[in-house]
Amino acid sequence: MNLDFSQIVPYIPFMLEGIWVTIRFVIVAIILGFILGTLLALCKISSIRLLRAIAGSYTSIFRGTPLILQLMLFHYAVPQLTGYDITPFMSAILAFGLNSAAYVSEIIRAGIQAVDKGQTEAAKALGVPYREMMIDIILPQAMKNILPALMNEFITLTKESALVSTIGYLDLMRRSQVVGSSLFRNFEPLLFVGVIYWLMVTGLSVLGRMVERRLNVSD
Amino acid sequence: MLVIKVENLSKKFGDNEVLKDISAEVKKGEVVSIIGPSGSGKSTFLRCINLLEKPTAGKIFVAGQELTDPKINVTKAREKVGMVFQHFHLFPHLTVLENLTYAPMKVKKETKTVAQEKARELLLKVGLAEKADAYPNSLSGGQKQRVAIARALSMEPDLMLFDEPTSALDPEMVKEVLDVMKDLAHSGMTMAVVTHEMGFAREVADRVLFLDEGRLVESGEPIPFFENPQTERAKSFLDKIL
What is the ipTM of this complex? Predict the structure, then answer.
């Protein structure tokens, strides 16, 4: 045991920059996953068979294959097919956003179906159109029920984001590896970013509990 | 003038025929009680009138408009039919006032000021003015149901449907809800009420429809119906419950 954290001090600003690099694509991926996931969930409960089939296959494919494979496909296979030189940022957003959408859609579908059927009937009886009913009545109630599951998904995504280090995206994880190989010491930089990941996830959990408390004012 | 006209209505759930060839009419300002044993199809009948259940066959007209016309805008047609449910179905994430203003603002595009003013008036009418800013979960069952009635009235319907409005209430709360319904009946509202409250049917209703096994077995004015039912089926039903 010869831990020496003083050696990584010069590299700390370099590693800290990785926080923003990671957060930036995680936020975009979460938003993309959430919006697409909501739309997919609506397709899944739709009365139109084609929409249900599309959403079902989508989920099956994105849940049924490894995330790292999807990431590689976006980053290496898309340029090969189209000639479009995709940036690591773009590949990361697409792979994580589309993958997360599959999980989010299942969470939201379950959440919508758990809302009392009477709510739909009451809204219908008042002449409220489907779109407004979903946005104002059903989804807010569904969101309240699924918030813990949704936070869990966002936390998983934040941690799994470290996978983008494999396509050369200079995120937190990748930066710790860079520092590790230039110092020939891996333990210190890895431990350092480990703490940062833990802090980020803890922050997310706190945020989740705050939102949950706000949504519970009606109880 | 007829507010509801039902012609040869049938409803099947799979192979189970719940309503069999029912024809009935309700005139403007009339209060009709729909009674019968459980499973007789009375709730389904009521729910067909605003198309929460889709009839298998037959025609339904509300205020002269055919609801069973495939070309009709169902959402639009429902605006004019208020419905009160057994389990209230208030929107739990909205305050009492928001429950009342939501549909008028979204559907009828009323301004917030107008909608709130009318909502407060309705709350006063059902005796809950002081609960405007409360959330539904903090109300008693009777209060919830009165809010639900006010919410249905906020759309200024031509017709109010009540689906067992007092069946989920504690006994001491039944009266406050029935009183609101009586006031409403006296104000000239057209009402169709599925109920087990024979007292209400007897005192307030202008007519009673008796359903059994999906058929309209008997209909008539309450006093003659309760005192001297014409059919065996109605007689034995009344013997059991009165």
Answer: 0.91
Q: Does B135 touch chain A (CB under 8 A)?
A: yes
CA distance A191 to A17: 16
- CATH number of the structural domain spanning residue A56: 1.10.3720.10
Residues of A whose CB is below 8 A from B151? 126
Identify the segments of chain B with pLDDT beneath 50: none
Burial class for A85, CB neighbours closer than 10 Å (0-12, 13-18, 19+): exposed
Domain encompassing residue A71: 21-171
Report residue A6 as tokens: 């003083």
Q: In chain B, which residues have their Cβ closer than 8 Å to the Cβ of A121?
A: 52, 83, 85, 89
Which are the contacts of B158, defined by CB distance < 8 A and separation ≥ 6?
A: B3, B62, B63, B80, B81, B190
Cα of B124 to nearest chain A Cα, Å:
21
Residue A160 burial by Cβ neighbours in a 10 Å radius (0-12, 13-18, 19+): middle
**Is A109 within the bounds of a domain?**
yes
CB contact under 8 A, A127 and B89: no
The CA distance from A141 to the nearest CA of chain B, in Å, is: 7
Which residues in chain A come in under a pLDDT of 70?
Answer: 1
| DSSP 3-state of B62 | strand
